[in-house]
Amino acid sequence: LKSQLNDPTLFTTAGFIDNEFITTSNSGKHFPVYDPANGTEIARFPDMGIEETDKAIQAAKQAFPSWSKTTAKERSTILRNWYNLILENEQDLAKIITWENGKPLADALGEVRYGASFFEWFAEEAKRLYGEVIPSPNRQQRFIAIRQPLGVVGIITPWNFPNAMITRKLGAALAVGCTVVAKPASETPLSAVALYELGRRAGVPKGVIGLVTTHHDTKAIGKHLCESQDISGISFTGSTAVGKLLLKQSADTVKKVSLELGGNAAFIVFEDADIDKAVDAAVLAKFRSSGQTCICVNRFYVHSSIKDVFGERLRERVEKFRVGSGMEANTTHGPLINKASVEKVRSHVHDALDHGAKLLTGGKESENTHGYFYPPTVLTDMNNNMRIATEETFGPVAGIFSFETEDEVLELANNTRFGLSGYFFSKDVSRCWRVAENLQVGMVGVNTGAISSEVAPFGGVKESGIGREGARQGLDEYTQYKYINMAI
Ligand code: ADP
């Protein structure tokens, strides 16, 4: 694979500790990385443990005093260099994403640019970390609040955006002067190391960014990052179960914790919606990355008067998808990440069918594929007894429920412990305000299915998370206010 890159050095199978790429682990063990399109092993990474994690933490701790005292402009320049290097190498980085994650190359390229946009954005925001001068309530004192970096932060990222989930966290952390120890998902470490190589070239100083690769010791390293007194913050993107565990493990050291967890997005189509636009948006918001993003739609609520038309048009669109290896030029939808994902999707579909759902398309798996594929599927006549009503499927299955009134659908949409994103389609301005305000989520798409942007605060409410990423607010996760009272 290496030889297929313009710059083969971006294909590195190593962690990065104290400014060195480390290709072996203290335990002597390695873990494999697979191409989900065919199940073959494409790389082996050092399976690191607590010792290596400690080394990375100590290096980050040592680097913190000098990194946190660089000027905002100096940090901005390094982030900007890194951004430029990512764009110069975007084709290679996209290929690496497709190899280990499976998403089609065009989507992978989109992810590389989206990922880079966080370095561009935070290179700019670094210079605007404003504090406050507070009008004094008395004549003898002056009040000021300044913002300071937390210290060393631990970062844990998932496989569904192997590049962008790292840059979104690193960009904000580095902009404010934090140093970092990151642990990428063991399914997708290649993208992380490639980014680190570019970071090194961009001039990130020694010790400022560490990368620990592991599979076997994932739990132990996660616990160690949470419990270490040398780490001041944790930023995690992944499943709700693991997020809750990390929050608990961080309690004893009273860490600042930022969590982007699972969602269960509703997509509501009101009777006055532009159906074609809604179908276009549904295709994106449900099937992008084969349904494996945390803001992917999990439940479609379509007004009963248009449910059949909507279902029919969605079916037509889904049947035009070309499912296959992400490396093939005409592939629109790639495989799922692994066998367990395919199993989960299959069980959700069977469960829905057993409880009375009707299959509009998909649902039937081909017997002789080697990779982790599931056919894009549309189900209708869904009801609340089905698992899809409450559980995140994280796969290419659209289940259509019907409703009659706005109040009813809001109650249905909000009847979940999750609250990441929600979408709806309507042409009634008053309703747009009402529904946007009443959906219990952190992000709402009104007449659109594409909401992610580096300039907007990304995050959830309820059990979907704490904190926001990207935007001006993204800096808050990595800073504390310090109040200074000066007598005169
Ligand atoms: P997903 O279903 O997306 O794989 P996970 O929450 O399992 O979600 O994984 C997200 C990230 O969390 C990955 O980097 C994974 O290795 C890591 N992870 C999984 N379990 C733990 C744990 N117990 N402690 C710390 N990190 C974990």
TrEMBL record:
Its EC number is 1.2.1.16. It comes from the Eukaryota. One of its GO terms (biological process) is cellular response to oxidative stress. Pfam families: Aldedh. The keyword Oxidoreductase applies. Pathway: Amino-acid degradation; 4-aminobutanoate degradation. Belongs to the aldehyde dehydrogenase family. This is Succinate-semialdehyde dehydrogenase. It comes from Linnemannia elongata AG-77.
